[in-house]
Structures are given as structure tokens and as C-alpha cells.
## 1
Amino acid sequence: MGPISLMLALPVVTALLVYLLPKKASRWIAIIGTLATLAISASILVNFDIRDGSFKFIEQYKWIPSIGASVLFGVDGLSLVMVLLSTSLFFIAILVSGSLVHEKLKLYYTLFLLLETFVLGVFVSLDLMLFYIFWDLVIAAMFFLILIWGGSNKRYASIKFIIYTGAASFILLLSIIGVYMMSGASSFDIRQLTSAVYPQTFGLIAFIGLFFAFIVKMPIFPFHTWLPDAHVEAPSPASVILAGLLLKMGAYGLIRVAYSMFPNVASSLFVPIAALAGISIIYGAAVAVVQKDLKRMIAFSSIAHMGMVLLGIASMNQIALTGAIFAMFSHGIVSAMGFSMAGFIHEKIGTRIIGLFSGLASSAPRMGWTLLIVAIASFGIPTTSAFPAELMIVMGAFSVYGYYVLIPIIGILILAGGFLFMVQKSSFNNPSPKKVKDMSFVEYLPFIILLIMLFFFGLYPQFLVYFIDSYSKVASFIR
Amino acid sequence: MSIPLEYFIVVSTALFVIASYGIITRKNMLVIFMCAEVLVAAAAINFVAFSAFKTGNPIGQSFVVFGWILSVSDTIIALALFMYILKEEGNIDLTKLRKLKW
Amino acid sequence: MVVEVAYLAIVPFILSFLVLSIFAKRLNRFAPFISIFLAAVSLAILAVSFLEFNQTIEVKFSWLTFANINFTIGFLMDKLSMMFALLVSIISFFVLVYSYSYMDKKDALSRFHAEMSLFAGSMLGIVLSSNFITLLIFWEIVGLSSYLLIGFWHYKKEAARAAKKAFVIIILGDVFMFAGIAFLATQFPSLDFNYLNSNATSSPFLTIAMSLILVGAIAKSAQFPLHVWLGDAMEGPTPVSTLLHSATMVKAGIFLVARLLPLYSLAHLLDPIALIGVATAFIGATIAFSEIDIKRVLAFSTVSQLGFMMLALGASKIGASMLYSFTQTFSKAAIFMIAGIIMHSLKEQRDLRKIRIRPKSMIFYIALLGMLVMSGLPPFGDFFGKDTIVGSAMGYNTLFFVTILFTSFISTLYISRWIFLPLGNSIKLKPEGKKKHKIPLTMLVPTILLLVGAVSSGFFTPYLFHYFGEAEEFNMLSIVLSTSSVVAAILISYAVFYKKMIKPIVFVRSPLGIFHKIFVNKYWIDAAYDKFALGMFNFVFKALDYIDVFVIDRIVNLFNPVSEIFADTFKKMQSGVTQTYVVGILLGLLLLFAMLNADKIMLLLGV
């Protein structure tokens, strides 16, 4: 049993333990479980050989030989980075859950841990059928998390979430089946499907189908409206996973499946795709700025940031792609911080409405100053991981789109201004309410971890780029 | 064989059609049930006829025996259910029993 | 050799920032000492480096390398950077000492000193950087620390608002600068300043990229039209105003343009730069002339002076620009400290019409000296600085020359008004009757030292020009014009504001009063930004939000009624009448039969 299957199995085993053992131990079992999973992913990282761009740590097991679907795992530079992000964020989310989730704990941790396996499964599956199954399982698990532990409008939000993303994943299924049948290969192995040759018109249809499915997940304008409601109503740790990982699944799918299999189609559509990305960025930023609910604001900013990621992917060159993948990682960290902080603010003050609370820098310095860091990280201030990401995306996009790149730049500016205004109202000005219980050191620990990550990758991006580059160098659609 | 096979087929088909018509049109559940039994009889005729005309293979006739036994058992259950429905709803008029709808 | 690691002078400041941030509560009492000590360490490193300096040194650390990118964090120790670095660390040190007495013990001293150290360290970073990436990193941190420091008393609404305004404008500049740098990075293999200065060629691309970068410089150095934040920035504590907004941070833009002058020349942007400079100088001076807040006069004065420096750069006279930058650092910092001393002794009174300076007091002499230095009177430092700039304008463009000469006149007017008004007040208003206020030594000594520097900086003129390899040019005509305008301005000011021979109100009520209205309202630029820009954006964004919720989402939710209609139609099939189902079954059977025996049926029908 290889490291990858071990890594996938561990959360399931932990979930089982949580379910069987008494409620008091649930949280600790979950913490240890996710920490162990993180450790395994770290060991994969350490032993990762980057000399060529192929998949490593491959494991294959028989599954449905008659249609060529097997259980096939493997990681390359791209998935390794995603796996690392996943294990880290799940660990953080579990830590944060301790303070923010109070009911049906056993069920919660069980479900959450299963979600970890599903998410990891999406990123390590090299069999398209298996990929799809994990993809759907993620949606299902998230649906329940929102429905059971969500906010006041959870029914509407969770049902909208599952129907919208479910419809998109149905299109995904159709596209996958189509690709399988037209590829001539008798297997769902992504490597084989990528190198197969497809007829022209089919390629266009398949790409559009895949593109649509992944776009909804990222989400990109105009298919983004499920996100704000889902985020606002989801419990904060689930929002962390939703923003930090689920959205990235969409981008990952775009890179791994859509762009890799149909580079020529993607190349011919590079203008409309970039236009979509640009609109997403500006629209997301503009609408984010006028939101009253803190979580909704961060949700719309996520739309803008994923627009930047799409821009990087659409440019189809090595620098932009590296930037996009880096941005996926960085945004995972930043949104984890943002949504966790929003959760704590709701927990300690009772509201998330911007303007109803202020002066956090005086009354609850840990919360107030972290909010400031989230704000400045959102527009890519140097020393944070967002800066190298943005720099690479802008550079890569400029080579392809020239001065039009200034349009998304304006989006970033709008976002910066908006977040600043938010921080101004929330952290500075006169404290109101006057007495706020600040976060304890234990509660703040996950944030310390996130801050370390944020600044480490901001000051030393080479570490991450080392791995991303091994993939982007040989990605089949690089021009 | 003195009576040609086709005659048997015709008879069983006729019975089948008459019984179907009865099922579709009648209101009284008991009558519908009787028509269902006629359906079974029609099928039985078919089986026996084919089996008789194919010498040396009694399988059709054995089927009929099986079928009768099964038919008897489901008659028992059906009649018991009809009694219950009569007690609950007060009638066994199919047009008035519409609970299995949207 | 210490000079080889001169960039390590940044480290003590960063260390101070980190230590004071993490252990803020525990170290509150010791904060001033920690920061002053570490500032002294930094100063020592730079002083020794400056003395050892004899040739350019460049040090690089790899930051991001892949594909054809090779970004490094690089430091350049050359004439320009060494001078600026030393200047920055001297002023930082003095201001930190000054703030020991200025800041109230009840303030959050740890945070103040942490933020000040962060600023000083990153300012050094800007000055010592050798490539755009390094510059950008420190540049944005400087902006951040400026925001934090302006809004230091963040529970004060005015301060918070001012900080927000400053940061928005600076971020605007930063983002455009980021874009310009990213564009440059795609066209050149290296972002080193020296490389770019020697290897760039003229092209529309270069003009666009450099313009974007220029926006950042304009924002940071409060040039027109992005100057509106500096006046409000005076809400911050006076040490902040002294360090950031007179002597160092605002110079960053000037410094950048100076560093990249060859590039700007190639990009054909020198004329716009000069234009912006002269416009800023004029606007700043005229607004300063009508301000009544003791610090805001100085803030707009800084805007004006930066305009002078920008003009000189546009005229390709880097020597003149740097000379004025050098002398102005001392004089402006000194004046701000003086203002701080005045405010401190009068419980933070800031209205010039209400402040009293007693003649023949220590404050009076110091303030008078400061005023004389700043007014550009020979042989004090600022005279040399201003005059060389005015002289360079003469050779560049006559209109600019006339404007800048007039601006110079107004500059002297406003700074002499600045002292004559309070002096005049002491005659009219009743004396306080309190004990004479004692100026703390830690505030007095830096002030005096800076004044000495300001006074004597003029003597460095030949040395500085030589330093930059330019021949000094002294134009007799411009010297005469400058000096006479200075003297005239002082006399007029004395008459109007001190002796009250002509009441200012006469001027306001006359037809010339329209100018007064324009100046007092700051040309309505502020109002334009507030009402127009913000209002418009707010409206547009709210509209988009509305569209999002009521249009796009509604379309998605159409899925609901559509599927309901669909379901409603088909549910009628489940009528509940059992016989309907039976019919269905029979029909289905029939169909199945037909499908299975399609061929035979065809035959039967004779098809």
C-alpha cells in the first residue's frame, strides 16, 4: 500500500474512530488524524523527484476492467501542491472547528474527515471515472455540511449549491463519457486520454462541456451566484474548505482535463476566456466592495481571485501557469484566514455585518490586526504569497494580452480599496462594542500557522515554484 | 389433432382481449379481479395448446399447474385485501380509490 | 569592509519592528530605548560604510528563478544610495529621540516604535535597492507603515479617515507601478536599474511602462494630482509628519525618478515630469499660503518643495534636485520639530491665529532661524538648493522659470507668515500668566542639530555637485531675482502679518480675493475626489450588486419554476386511477411485441 492510498485511507479510518468513540474525544482524534495525513503528504513532498514532469508514486488497482476504469493514483508538481494545500487546510479547519462548531460534533467530524478523503481523491486520481466519483462525493459531503450546521438561510443555500454544482458535474460526466468514447482508448487513464487524438468538432464540444463544468466550480462570472449564498450560510470551517479547496478543484480540473486534452481548442478561444476572466475579476471586486456581510465580501473577492487564476491558465504560457497555480495555493491560505476570522468575529461579537462592530485593533488586537493582514494580502502586498503569484500572472498574461491586462489590474485596485474600507471600519475607529473577548492563544494558533505560511511563501517563493515548475515546464499545452 | 393450433390461439387471444377490456372498463374491484383470472386462464390455454402440439414436451402443461397454484395463492391474498379495503374505505369502487396519485 | 554589507543597516530596524510587535504589551515601557538603540546601530553601520565608500558595490540574493525569470533581491551601494541612506538613518535616529518626549506615556509606545522602525527599515530598503523587485517590496511596505502611522491614534475619526485617504492614493500608485514593473519584466532579462539605464531603447512600450511607474512616484511624493493625502496626513503624530512626510518617505518618488532618469529620458517623459513638478510647486505653495493649521502649512509646503525637485529632474538637472533634496531634508525636519515643540507647549493648539510665540524666548529664536533658513535666504542651505533649481528652469522653459520664481516668492511668503502670525498674536492676545514652558532636551537637541545641518548644508554644494559629476552652474540673474524676491517676501510678510499695517482681510475682500477662495478650498480638488470619484464608484458598484442579486441570481432561480412547470405537467400522468396504469402497461407490452417482431410485421403488411 503506497503513501497515496495511505494518505487517502487515513481520514476515513479517523472518521471511523470518531464515529465509534465517545463524543469528548472526537475533536482530538480529528486533530491527530489530520495532522498525520499532513505528515504523510509532507513525506511525499520530501521524497518527490522533480527531474521530469511525469507522475510519481503511482499506484494502480483493478476496479472495472471491462470499461477500463481502474483505481489509479499519482502525483505530479501540480497535484502535489494541491495535496499539500488540502492537508494543511483540513488540519487548520479542524483546529478552528473546535471553537466554532458546537452541535452534533461526532457527525460533524466524521463528515468532515470523509470530505478530506474525497478532496484528496480528486487531486490524486489519474483515472477520470474515479476523479468524477470523488468530485461528486465532495459536492454531496459539502451539501450536508451546509445543510446541517449552516446559518439562517441554510436550506436555500445548500440546495442551490447542490443543484447548481450538481448540474455542472452532470455536464462533466457527459463530457467525460464523450471523451472516453471518442478517444479510441479503452481506459479512463488521464495520461492516455490526454495523448489521444480527437476529431476537431468533437474537441470543441467536449472542451466547452468540460470548460463549463469547471467554470461553475471556480466560479467564474456569470455562473458564480451559488457561491455567495453557500459561503455565507456554511459554517466557517466548511467555508475554509469551500473557498480554499473546492474552488481550486475547478481550476485543477480545467488544467488537468480541459486544457491538457484540448489545447488547440483552448488556444483558439483564448480571447473570450480571458474576457470572462477579466469580467470576473472586475465584477467580483466591484460587488465585493459594497457588501455588508463580511463573509459575503470575502466570497466575492474569491470570485475575483479565481478570475486571476483563470487569466493565468488562459494565457497558456509557463510563467502565467506557474503564477496561476501559485495563486491557487496562496488564495487558499488567505481565504482560510479570512473565513476563519469572519467565523470568530461572528462567534465573539455576534454579527458579521461590517459597520456594526469597529475598533477591533483596540478591543481585540489579535482579531483586528489579523483582519488587516487579510486585507493587504488580498491585493498582493509584497512579503505575502499573493505577490509572487500576481506578479507571475500579470507577466505571463501581458505576453499574450498586452495592455488589456491593465483591466484586471484595476480590479485588484478596487478590491484593495474595498478591503481597506472594511478594515478601516472594523479594526480602526472607536471600539464598539467596547468589550470584546479576544481570541485566546489556543484559538489563535491556527492563524499563527497560516501567517507563517503566508509570509514564508511570500518571502521565499522559490520553494513552491520548484515543484510547480516541474509541472508547468512540461505541461502539454504550453505555447 | 383434430382442432388446429390456430383455433386455440384465437380463443386465447380473444379471451385475453375480453379480459383486458374488462380490467380497463369495470369499476368493481372484484369483477376486475375475476377478469385478471380470466387473463391467466387465457395464458394457460396458450401454454397447454403449444405444449400439446409439440409432442414429447410436457413443460407447458406443467407450467399451467404451477400457474394455477400461484394464481390461487394470490387470489387468497387479494380477497383478504379487498375485505380490508372494504372495511376501510366503504367501497371497492376503483374509480373512487385514488390514493396512489401525485 | 563594512560598506560591503551596508544593506544590513536595514536589519536592526526590522528586528526592532518584530520584537516590538510580538512582545508589544510587555515591552511598552522600553520601546523607545529599544528602537533608539537599534536605530543607532543602523546609523553606525551606515556612517562607517559612508566613510569607507569609494566604489559602487552590488549585492544580490536569488529570490525567484525559473523559466527565463531571474528575480533577485538586490542592494546597490553607490553615491546616490549611500548619501540618501545616511540621511534617512540620521533623520530617523533624531526623530526617534525627539519622539521620546513628544509621545505621551499613555500612547501605545510599542506599536508606535515598531511601526516607525518598520518604516525606517523599509525606507532604507528603497534607497539601497538595486532592482525593481526589491524596490517594489520595500516601496509597498513603506506605504503600509505610513498608513499605520498616520492612523496611529486610530480611535480618532479624523486620523482614521486621513490614513484611509493616504493609503488609497498610495495603493493606487503602487498598483500601477506594479503593473509597469511586471510589463518591464517581460521585455528585459534583468530588472536591475543599472542594466535598464544602459540597455533600454526608446519605444512606445517603454513610455507606457515608465508612465505606470511614474504614477507610483507621483502618488508617493504627493505630486499633483495625487497630492491630496499629504495635508490630511498631518493628523498623525508630529514625529510621523517629521520623518515620513517631510524628510524621507515623500522623497521616495523623487529618488526613484532620479535613479531612473536615463530611462525617463528615453521614454520622452521628462517634459511631463517637469510640468507636473512646476504645477505641484505652484499649487502647493498657494494652498500653503492660505492654510491656518500650523502643520498643514508645512504639509503643503512639502508638496511644493517636492514639486521643485521634480521640476529639476524634468529639466535633467539631477544635481540641483538632489542638492535641494539634501538641504530641504534638514530644514523641513527641523521646522516640523519646531512646530512640534510649539504645539507641545501649547497643548496641541494648531490654529495659527491662536498660537502665541513670545518674542525673545528660546522658541522664538529657534523658529525665526528655521524660517530664515527655509525661506531661501543666502547663505543658508535652502538658498543654494532652491536657487539652482530656479536657475535650471531658466534654461529649460521660460514659462516654467517665471512660474517657479513666483512660486519661490510665495514660498517665502507662507513660511514667514507662518512665524509672523503667531508672533503678532502675542501682542494682541493676553499673556497666559503661566510659568515659562521648558523644552525637553531630547526635543531640543535634535532640533538644534538639524538646524545646524540646515544652515550649513549650503556649504556642501560644490561637494554635492561634484559627487554627482555635474558642473555647478550659478546664474547671476537668477540669484539676484531669487534673493530679492525672498527679501521682498519677508518684508511684505512682516508688514502684513506682524505689524498688521495692511490687514489681510482687505486682500480677501478685494477683487483679488477670488484667488483666496481658490486657495482656501484647495482648488476644490479634494471635493472633486470625494464627491465625484467616490460617489460615482459607489453608485456603479451598488448597481452591480443589485444586478447580481436581482438579475443574475433570478435567472438561476428560474430553474425552480421551470422545473415545477415541467413536473406539474408530467405529474398528471399519475392520476391515481389504477386502470390508466393498466392501459399503460398493455400499451407498453404491445410496443415491445411490435419492436421484437418488427420484421415479421413488416412482412405481414406487405411492406
## 2
Amino acid sequence: MNELKEISQHVVEVARSAGADDVVAEAIVTEVKQVRFSNSQVDAVNSWSEEHLALLVAIGKKVISSDIRTLTDLDPHARALVSLAKKVPPSKTYEGVAPGRFKYRRNPVDGRIVKLRDPSRFVHEAIAGAEGFGANNVGGTFYAIHERVGLASSGGAVGADESTAADLSVRAFSQPEASGHAVCCTPTLTGMEAKKTGERAGEFASHARDPVMGEQGKFDLIVDPLFLGSFIQSTSSMLSAMRVEISNSMYAKKIGKRVASDEVTFIDDPTIRSTTRRAFDHEGVPTRRNVLIKDGILKTYLHNTGTAKRFKTKTTANAGPLIPSAYGSAAQPMAFHPVVVPGDWNKDELIADTKRGLYINNTWYTRYQNYSTGEFSTIPRDAILRVENGEIVGAVKNIRISDNMMNFWKSIDALSRKAQDIYWWEEAAPPSTLPTVRAKQMTITRSA
Amino acid sequence: MIDEDLAEYMLDAASKHTPVLAEVRLESTRCTQLALKAGQVDTIASSQDAGMNVKIFFASGVGFSSSNVVSKAEGLRLVRQAVSQAKSARRKSPCTLSAEKAVRTSWEVRQKKSLADVTTEEKLDYLRSLDSAALKTGVKVQGRYYDLKDWETTRFFGNSEGSRIKSFIPRMKVESYNLVSAKGETEQSMREWGGSGGWELKDEWNLLEVLPDEMRMLKKQIEHGKRVKPGKCDLVCGSEVTGIAAHESCGHPMEGDRIQGREMSQAGRSFISEDMIGQRLGSKYATVIDDPGIPGSYGYYAYDEEGVKARPRYLYKEGLINEFLHNRETGSKMGLVSNGSSRAESYLREPIVRMGNTFVAPGDFEEDELFGTVKDGVLMNSFTEWNIDDKRYNQKYVSREAYFIKDGELAGPARKCTIEITTPAFWSAIDAVTKKVRFDAAECGKGDPGQGMSVFTGGPMLRLRGVSLR
């Protein structure tokens, strides 16, 4: 880790000597092992190794970033980027890098994940767990991830960080249209409950047997943490100040206003033990617990140094990667580990208290007509269980939730006391800690 | 520069383990990304990437290992790792591959004006001109975000059967996000243009006219658009809607790996099963083709990631389920050969079954003929919200641009017209198809980790009779 920190410090010095005013360098080494399985057997065992340096340099307001895909012989790359920076036009909205020398927490890592040679055994345990509950076809993914980071900036930040993660996703089928999905996300291998995760998926698949066509209309929805994870993805993204700046968010001009029911408190907390715990953001600012929505009232957006200055506030230490993604800027503010604060219900009470509703295991393909107003639809998948007069009375299929995301958050009237760490594929992301929640009177539609 | 000797060294090392097949890929990519936010330079990024991977097939399993460190030592490590991983899989049913002939060739996409020769300032000027054009319309555009990405990829593929393929492909795309407001309401537009080729691609896109037209259209939708009275009527789909339906409800459910269950816990399975080849799914006008070979297309490739020559695949043919998309593994499971559908986002990820350019085949109607017999209907030119379930059976499209059709004539704008329909119902309702095919660029998502893939979606205009709209 110190080696990565030294590499970043050295690159900052080289870029500064070449004429850069501001520099942020982040050296990243990632090792990933993956087992993909379907039809109750392993399809492929994959691994990938990446080492690279994300580098941002600025001369005045002339800013450029680069993903340098090596960690050796970096000096020429750094000098070349500074030369390029001299030629690019200024970005009037550039506000500099975070100043200050910071102290960081040390994150514990699990050496067993780092050294894991054959992750297939977790997959076999998960398959057996699901089959024990009647599943006849099981698929999913197991990941073991080890990431090391060294960061330095001309503002004075110098730090190193390291994390490990073991992520298991299991989807079990008991019939072609009856499935259940469960995940286990843990920073330590001892937290990997492969068999139990398979059992949960299998149990859902068992409940989902013989689904009938779902009805249109208004239903109370009790949604599993996995389902909520999909909504967290777009919701947390719209809390980014960058999305607000381009009117691509239903949270624009809503600070201090009600954006959820008073049952909802929504936090970004990369300081808790999780697979996405991190010591600093991508500008080197120490991460912290940020209350974004408290008792339903919007308190702050997610900020980096630049957006914070433009919004006349302080950074929330949520600067994202220095290399932009589609529709995203370099260091675009992003949530690292969303948390919805649990309530005081248990799952059985939620069901017993619901007269006409649906218990939904998972969803995908959440898409918006208009991010600034929040109209969306999403397609529930896996177990969709009909609740009548406090009891589960059967399973349904082929429905869609077509409503408004602000309305969803405002309609939540009950949250479970138990929360779960969630991460699944590209849908339930970023990794989050979420309870089961109930949203009243949401609109269900289906194909005509 | 690609080190072909390194590939040979890795293939030799892999062959010593006597796999069913060993594949090696080396890749190098130069990339530039620029973004303009509300008229201001927001992002300038430039990168150069290189890396390699090894894929090993034994009867008992498959191992894939990749790295962005390019050296002999790393190559040897990747081979050993992939072999070890493949052996650890311990599959119940043996892994088999279709027999394909070895190919030694090279292919490239030529550029009239090389992307690497266009300066950052020139590219930013182009984005600025788009922003200015949008502003000059006088339409209130609350949100304005434009980004441009161009990248050139050089690849070398070799396998233990003797294939050796070199390739070079440059691609460019522009994405726009706009939020138009009028009368206290807003409409959103998120669009993409992409292709394979050089800087000349932007001339074909004609965005200096297309984007201002989009702003004016959205303003009209807000100011004059009326909601559709829910019920059954005729629907004419513009090529953008035709294209998304072809991609989502034909291309995806016809992917061999999805049908065989390999994507079951991510993108899902398919309502189509292996034994449904030849079954009727749509009307005789429903012919959907996936053709990676369209020159200049965003999804272009000449040979796939397993060295199989690309060719047009007739997925639905005159309404019948005709041919699935296959790689060597999925094809072999059905006793077939690959039809060249293996693609990967980069050297870091395992190649999987993907679409190239998916579109509905043209018919024989002129566009204005399509409305003539429509007494009461809607033309849905483009869409905003869309989705489909993971078995690809229930799809929904909400219009971005739509118009009423009354007695064979286009009437005023129809706002947020929604169709929610099953896949067989959509393809069975078609009774007329126009001659002219148009394409849109898109990023197709699939795989775990997700691999964004450049594709075209497209087709002619379609007329659907008696479908439910709201």
C-alpha cells in the first residue's frame, strides 16, 4: 500500500515540476476472482488483474484527466498530460482540488479473501442450499475482490487504502416462471453465508410456484432489501450535485423540502464495515457519514470540492473517480454506501398489517420518462407474492410498477428493524444497507 | 503496437496443458472523452490502454484470466491461472465447442479523417456548436449536457487451432442530455449517435440540425400535446421505436446463452426455448435481422472474438423463430456451428453472446402510404422510458415524440403515449412495413460484470393494427 502511495506522491511531484498547478493521482491495483454458474453447475471461473493510475492535472482552469494503464515508468505519462493540459481550453467551472493534509482511518482487510484460490466451494454450497428448498435450477455469481489504492494530491492529501469483498448472488428456480433471488455481501470470508443465501433464494422460489397473471391497480408494496437496492441506484445518483446542476434530478431545488415520508432517513456512510468502506474519496478527502434525507426532509446533495463551491457549501467527501463515465464528469459526486435507517417492524408484522398488497423479492430495468419529475416504471422479478388480509395467498407474474419515484419515497409507511447488505450486478448498486419497506398504494400495470 | 510473439508464446504455454481449446487476445486502445455542461467545458480525458487475456477450455470447465500488464511473465501467469481455474470448475455436463475452421486474416475499418488527428480544441468546438445550435432555437433548454468519446482499438486474436486475426476499429459517439421546459412543464431527451469510422461520422449525423429540431419538437409536445384516450387503436412505430423493439424483444430473447440459461441470474432467461425454432411468433411482415457487417455501423465487426466470420443472422423470418445468436459453446450444445456472435467490451472481460446491429427488414410501403388506411391511430416516432422483463415477454415504451393520426392524416402531438404489450402481440400486429431503414446507436448492457456493447438498433416504420395504447 505504501508503494502505491509513494507512486502517487512521485507522480504529483513530476506533474508539478512540469508546470501543473493542481494534481490528483490515484494508483489503483485490483484483483478479482469470479465464478459464474447456471443450471446448477459452474460455467466459468474468471479472474482479472488491473493496475492503473488515474491522474488529474490543472494549469489554472485548464483541466485534463487520464487513466494511465500502468504503474511503471509513469514520468513520461505525467509530463505528457501536463503538456496536453497547456493546450486545452479552460473550464470556467473548475474550482481546484481539496486543500489540506488529512488523517485517515485504517480499514481492516481479510487476508483469506486475498489468498482465496478456489472460490467454487461457496457456489456448490449455495446450489445445495437452494436445492434443499426445492429449487431445480440455480444460477449466480461469486466474487472475491481485493483492491489497494494510493492517493496523493497537490492540495496536501496523501493516503493509502485497501478493501476486500466477497459477493454472492443466487437466483433459484423451482419452475420456469417461479424464482427467488438472494445475495450475501461481506468484507470477510467468515461473513459469507453461502448455504443460507442459497436457502433464501430457494425459499422464495418455492413460495413463487404456480404464479397467476397479476392485476392492474393500486397495491401496497412490501419490498425486499434487494428490490430496494435497485431504487437506491437511481435515487442516490439523483442526489449527486452534478445531476442537480444539469436539471437531471427530481431533487433539484428541494433542499429543506419534503422528499420522502417522515419514516425515511437516508444516509451515505462509507465509514461502516462493508464491502465499500473507504478511507477517502477520489480527491483524498476523508469520507464521512452524510445524512442526505432526515425524517423525509432533504438535507444536502452529494458534493465534491467543485460542486460544493458552486453550491456555496462544503464537500461531503463524495468525489467519484477521476475518469468520467457516460453522462458523468471527472470526480462526479457519488454515493459510496447508501443506508436507509431501519424502522421497528419485522417482516411478518408488515405482511400481517397489509390488507391488499404484494410482497416483491426483486426488480430490474427501472427507467425514467423524466428524471426531473420522477415518473418511472420498473419490472418486478423473482417472487411476487399476493398479500390479502394479512396473509400471503399466492404468487403473481407479468406486472410492472408504473409510478413516480418521489411518490414512492413519500408513500413509505413502515420499515423493518432488520437491514441487510445488498449488492447485485448492475441493478442493486452501489452496495447498500437496506431494510424491507412498505410503500402504500403504488400503481401496478401490465401488458394489455 | 501488439506483440504477436507474446501471443504465440502464451499459446505455446497453454497448449502444453492439452486443453480442448486455448485462446489468447492482445489489445491496445487509445481513447478521448470530452464533455460540455451548460456550455462550459466539463471534462477532458485522454487514455491509452493495453492488455491481454487467456481463455482455456477443458471438457470439465472454462477458465478466463486477464490483465493490463503486458509481459511474458504475466502471460505465463495468466495461462497457469486460467488452466487452474478451468480445472476447478468441475462441470457436470462436459464443455463442448463447435468445429470451426482456422482463419488467418486481418481486417480494419478505414477513416477518412483519423480520430487521432483531430485536436481536442476541434472536438470541443464541435460540442460547443451543438450547444449554440440548441440555444439559438429560442426554446428554454434547462439541462444541457453533451459528451463525445472516440476510441481506436487494435486487437490480435489467436487460438490453439491455428487462427490468427489482426484487426483495427475506430469508433466515435456523441451523447446528449437535454431538458426542455415550457408552460411550467418539462420533457427530457437522452440521445446517442455512434458509428465505426473517423471524424467524418459527425457529418452523417447532421446534429446541427437534428438537435435544434429535437428541442423545438419537445416544446411543441409540451405546448400542444394531448393525452391518448386509453383503448385499442392502430399504432405506427417510427424507426427508433422499431429498433428498440427489435433489440429488446427479438435480439435479446434469441441469444443462445440466455436461452440455455447462462445469464439466468443477471439479464435473465428467455421466453423462447431451443425447441421453438420454426414456431410462429409474429405476422409475415416480422423479419428481424442481426448483421454485424453493416459498413460504418456502431456494432460493426468482421470476425467475432472467437475468430468466426460475421454474417447476417435472420432471427425472426417472416414471423417465424428462425435462428438464435450463437458462439461456439452455445452453438455446439444445439448441434450447430457458431454464427459469429461472440463479443467482449475489452480484453479484461470474457467474450459472451452479443448482438451486432439488430433491425427489422424493410417492406414495400412508402412512409406516407402507411397512414392512408389508419382511421384512428398514433404515430410514435421516438421513446423515452422503456423496459422489458427478464424473459423478454412484457415490454413498455413511452413516447418522446408522437402524433395522432385521424382519417389517414397526421394530426396534433400526442403526449406520453404508452404501449405496454407482450412480445408475440407486438410482432403479430404488424401489417405493413416501409421501405426505408434508419439506424440509431445504442449501448447494449449484458454480462457480469456488465459489458456495454456498441450496437445499432433500427428498421423501417411499422404499422400495428388494433393495439392497446394509453
